[in-house]
Amino acid sequence: MANDNTINGKAFEFACLMSIYGRLQDEKKETRLEATPAFLTAKKAFETIDQEARERYMMAAGTAAKL
Asked: How confident is the model at residue 34 (pLDDT cuts 50, 70, 90)?
């Protein structure tokens, strides 16, 4: 992958997607995720960062998804 800024950006993108997806699932909305190259890149970036960063990103993304 690229530099740390790119990895962090893609990781946060994945966290946001998962938070929005979770919110839609909670609201019983019909949704599905597609394993596109962009999705897989963001997922890989999320899996690359440490657990503490994952938790922070998911907390921030969860807050944004509630708005």
From this structure: very high
